[in-house]
Design brief:
Two copies of one chain form a homodimer. The first copy, chain A, has nine helices and no strands. The first copy, chain A, is mainly α. In chain A, helix 4 crosses helix 5. The first copy, chain A, starts with 10 loop residues before the first helix and ends with a helix. The structure holds a DNA duplex (19 and 19 nucleotides).
DNA sequence: ACCTGAACACCGTTCAAGT
DNA sequence: ACCTGAACACCGTTCAAGT
């Protein structure tokens, strides 16, 4: 371990970690640069040596979140050479679990706080890599007749959008009680996906 | 018109209007109570006579947004006794248009800034009323065989979730360029819905 | 009942200065 | 190269005081 003196050693990553922790404790609204600095035990202006502004830190946190999501998705998909059906359901379960577990990280990843994506190539890279993972599973499902053929990327966006939408509405408390009181988010998502899959019984 | 003196007359609604305007100019991040007050030409503490805090103003803005969305959805659906298919596509087009036009109002409506819904009955009411509109159209589509029968509310949530998810991802710039460069949001949504509808040729 | 102005704690960001 | 501390403009919220 690096000796604790004037220079922190790895302040950049310490700030990202501190940010994730504050996010899970105080939520998106409670995330401030000054709190992050305090938690990392540096002065409130120290973060500016590593991040140009708050947006930049949020981009780094979002990138880290996407890396974790990617890892969990590929772990869920990759467990042995299972059937396309098992793979896609496992992937979706992992997505929902991620959203329900690391709620505020998930929210910030998709809260458009990153407007100028071009400035954050690492974020764009992992986000694209994650999408490709989904596209590959969708393609397998198409080949085995589980999903209608053609337009693989469009189908992937449709399915991803559906899961993402249902999860988002649930996180914002927008799903009517008449529905959410009877079924949990995972069940609703499974139902929705089942409808799509039913296309090819 | 009310004479402009010490008392504003209808400051409450003026603040909501000012908020919506600031939202469309400066975005969600640029919305502050002090700016709203300034725009309504009152002191920065005047809003507190009508709203307990910023959340409360946001709830009022969201409620107003939902009222507009409800109006546009029912206008789209209600135009003559058209077919269920026309109705559902018209409704979805209206939803997408609303999201793309009043982007920041849409975002704040679904940004979970309203955590304690119970405290905002007007918001809950219009939100439920809007959902019922969707449920009714879905039921019509089920009756005419466009959508699979049963579980009407679940089907409604699935479809609403899908539209909402695709639109949200688009607003956050998360749809990969390989897709969004070829098709606009409306087309992607139509494609997704077409997949669901295809269930019953 | 409705609004103002001073006050307080907190925030993002900058910058000269320290190590 | 990395970090501190003072400073500035802005913010949400409170409260005594004005009309």
């Amino acid at each position: 371990m690096p000796s604790k003196k004037y220079h922190h050693g790895d302040l950049k990553n310490a700030l990202i970690q501190a940010g994730i922790e504050i996010l899970s404790r105080d939520g998106v609204a409670g995330l401030s640069l000054r709190k992050v600095a305090l938690r990392a035990k540096v002065s409130h202006s120290a973060p500016y040596a590593h991040f140009s502004d708050k947006q930049s830190l949020i981009a780094a946190i979002s990138t880290e979140g996407f890396n974790q999501l990617y890892a969990e998705l590929s772990a869920a998909i990759g467990e042995r050479a299972s059937s396309p059906e098992k793979k896609i359901f496992a992937a979706i379960k992992a997505y929902v679990t991620f959203a329900l577990t690391r709620t505020d990280t998930f929210k910030i990843m998709f809260s458009g706080v990153i407007e100028k994506e071009k400035e954050y190539p690492a974020f764009v890279e992992v986000s694209q890599r994650t999408f490709r993972l989904v596209v590959d599973v969708v393609r397998e499902c198409q080949r085995s007749g589980l999903l209608p053929a053609g337009q693989t990327e469009l189908v992937a966006v449709s399915i991803w959008g559906q899961i993402h939408g249902i999860v988002s509405l649930a996180l914002e408390g927008q799903i009517p009680h008449t529905v959410i009181d009877k079924k949990d988010v995972q069940s609703i998502v499974d139902f929705a996906l089942g409808q799509l899959m039913a296309l090819k019984g």
